[in-house]
Amino acid sequence: MASPKPLSRFWEWGKNIVCVGRNYAEHVKEMRSDVLSEPVLFLKPSTAYVPEGAPVLIPAYCRNLHHELELGVLLGRRGQAVPEAAAMDYVAGYALCLDMTARDVQEECKKKGLPWTLAKGFTASCPVSAFVPKEKIPEPHALRLWLKVNGELRQEGKTSSMIFSIPYIISYVSKIITLEEGDLILTGTPKGVGPVKENDEIEAGIDG
């Protein structure tokens, strides 16, 4: 039965944006963090969504806004405590996403041992591409992601370098948070994160 809400416009009705931190070893190194045995999770509200082509907003309290390029995994049905072996059956498709981060604010939060919501959950902090159906990406762990700012290549990474695989992430998250149709999981960023300024133009892509 067709969904009454089109997955092609998931940003208009999807509820949860679940983000995975520290999922590429090179990015962990550039952030001077430790590789952990379990994924780091944080949430963005649905008001963080920005559809492709719309402007990203810089929060008034941020002085150092960074881009973080990520492969987003879109859920096609509800799942709770999903076994890893069955996890890909819950995937409807993918989107290229940005986890915009108020880096100066995040560093202060880390120093004080506080949550990252101010740094990660602000309005327009999750730009997303058009929906890509699962059938178009038969092997999501064999992609090259890239990001340019004003035409200059800044970020580049292969999804084969993920520490935690997509099935593992879906299974892990679904044991904590019941996932629903239209929910988006951001799978972590490769190395090369960096600052953007007002009027910069961000372009990103998935090879193939």
TrEMBL record:
A GO MF term: acylpyruvate hydrolase activity
Cellular component GO terms, alphabetical: mitochondrion
Swiss-Prot/TrEMBL catalytic activity: 3-fumarylpyruvate + H2O = fumarate + pyruvate + H(+); oxaloacetate + H(+) = pyruvate + CO2; acetylpyruvate + H2O = acetate + pyruvate + H(+); oxaloacetate = enol-oxaloacetate
Alphabetical UniProt keywords: Metal-binding
Protein name: Oxaloacetate tautomerase FAHD1, mitochondrial
Pfam families (alphabetical): FAA_hydrolase
Family in the record: Belongs to the FAH family.
Domain of life assignment: Eukaryota
Any one GO BP annotation for this protein: carboxylic acid metabolic process
Function: Tautomerase that converts enol-oxaloacetate, a strong inhibitor of succinate dehydrogenase, to the physiological keto form of oxaloacetate. It is thereby required to maximize aerobic respiration efficiency by preventing succinate dehydrogenase inhibition. Also acts as a weak oxaloacetate decarboxylase (ODx), catalyzing the decarboxylation of oxaloacetate (OAA) to pyruvate and CO(2), and as such is likely a regulatory enzyme in the TCA cycle. Also displays acylpyruvase activity, being able to hydrolyze acetylpyruvate and fumarylpyruvate in vitro.
UniProt-listed Enzyme Commission number(s): 3.7.1.5, 4.1.1.112, 5.3.2.2
Residue intervals of the Fumarylacetoacetase-like C-terminal domain: 17-208
Species, as recorded: Neotoma lepida (Desert woodrat)
Lineage: Eukaryota, Metazoa, Chordata, Craniata, Vertebrata
